[in-house]
Amino acid sequence: MRILVTNDDGINAPGLKVAEAIAAEIAGPEGEVWTVAPAFEQSGVAHKISYTHPMLIAKMDERRFAAEGSPADCVLAGYYEVLGGEKPDLVLSGVNRGNNAAENTLYSGTVGGAMEAALQGIPAIALSQYLGPQSADMDGGLFEPAVAHGTRVVRRLLDQGLWTEDDYRLFYNVNFPPVPADAVRGTRVTAQGFRRHTTFGVEPHNSPSGRRFLWIKGGPQHLRTLPGTDAEANLDGYISITPLTCDMTAHDRLGALRDALDETIEAKKAGK
C-alpha cells in the first residue's frame, strides 16, 4: 500500500510524525509512506491552491518533501511530481494540532488537503486532535489520543467505511477528543456541527510605527454543538468520524427553490 501524508501545520510539526507513524502501520513493511507537507505553517488556508504563482519543492529525506504551498498544493505536488502521476492508495492529512470540528471544518487546511485528494479520486482522511484543559497533563503528550487510537480508526474506515466513486466522492474528517487515551469512550459517526454564539473576528493592534494591523481571532472552542454532531461527540469523549463531500449544493432545498424561481423566457413573454 502506498500512502501520501500531508498536513497544514508544516513539515516540522509533531502531529505530522504521528500521521506518518499511523501511515507506516497501515502500509506495513511492504508498503510505502511518502510525505509532502508545507514548508511553513498553513493553518486556516482551507482548500487554497497556489494558482497564480509557482511553489518551490525540496527533498528533506527519503520519501519526505517540503513544498512552499498549501496542503492542497502538497497533494498535487505529491501525486503528480513526487510520485510521477502514480496514484497513492490513501492520503492522510494531519494530525492537526487543534480540532477541525464544526465550522472549523470550512477553514481547515488539514481538511483542504483531504478534499483535494478526494477531487483527484484518492481515498482520503483528515485527522485532527482536539485540545482542552486535560491535554497539557497527558503523559503521552498533546497527541496521546491520536497516537493510541489513530491506526485503529483508519483501519476501520478502510475496511468498513463507504468509499464511493462518485464525481464528488466521500472523504472523512476525524477528530480525536481532548481527553487522555484511556478515557476515550469510542467512536461516533457524526454530522458537522455549528458552534452558536461565536465566530471568527479580528483583533486590532497598532505597531510602534503607528501602523494598524489586524489579527484574526477565533472564538471559544468548547461550546457544545447539537447532539449527533462532531464537536458534541468530541467533548463527550468520543472520536468523531464525519463523512464529507466536495459538493456544496444544498440538495434538500432544490425542490422548493425550483418551484419558486424556475422559469422560461418564452413562457414569461406569453404571460404564462
TrEMBL record:
<dbReference type="Pfam" id="PF01975">
    <property type="entry name" value="SurE"/>
</dbReference>
<comment type="function">
    <text>Nucleotidase that shows phosphatase activity on nucleoside 5'-monophosphates.</text>
</comment>
<dbReference type="GO" id="GO:0000166">
    <property type="term" value="F:nucleotide binding"/>
</dbReference>
<dbReference type="InterPro" id="IPR036523">
    <property type="entry name" value="SurE-like_sf"/>
</dbReference>
<comment type="similarity">
    <text>Belongs to the SurE nucleotidase family.</text>
</comment>
<dbReference type="GO" id="GO:0008254">
    <property type="term" value="F:3'-nucleotidase activity"/>
</dbReference>
<dbReference type="InterPro" id="IPR030048">
    <property type="entry name" value="SurE"/>
</dbReference>
<feature type="domain" description="Survival protein SurE-like phosphatase/nucleotidase">
    <location>
        <begin position="3"/>
        <end position="197"/>
    </location>
</feature>
<feature type="binding site">
    <location>
        <position position="8"/>
    </location>
    <ligand>
        <name>a divalent metal cation</name>
    </ligand>
</feature>
<keyword id="KW-0378">Hydrolase</keyword>
<protein>
    <recommendedName>
        <fullName>5'-nucleotidase SurE</fullName>
        <ecNumber>3.1.3.5</ecNumber>
    </recommendedName>
</protein>
<keyword id="KW-0479">Metal-binding</keyword>
<dbReference type="GO" id="GO:0005737">
    <property type="term" value="C:cytoplasm"/>
</dbReference>
<dbReference type="GO" id="GO:0004309">
    <property type="term" value="F:exopolyphosphatase activity"/>
</dbReference>
<feature type="binding site">
    <location>
        <position position="43"/>
    </location>
    <ligand>
        <name>a divalent metal cation</name>
    </ligand>
</feature>
<dbReference type="GO" id="GO:0046872">
    <property type="term" value="F:metal ion binding"/>
</dbReference>
<dbReference type="GO" id="GO:0008253">
    <property type="term" value="F:5'-nucleotidase activity"/>
</dbReference>
<keyword id="KW-0547">Nucleotide-binding</keyword>
<dbReference type="InterPro" id="IPR002828">
    <property type="entry name" value="SurE-like_Pase/nucleotidase"/>
</dbReference>
<feature type="binding site">
    <location>
        <position position="96"/>
    </location>
    <ligand>
        <name>a divalent metal cation</name>
    </ligand>
</feature>
<keyword id="KW-0963">Cytoplasm</keyword>
<feature type="binding site">
    <location>
        <position position="9"/>
    </location>
    <ligand>
        <name>a divalent metal cation</name>
    </ligand>
</feature>
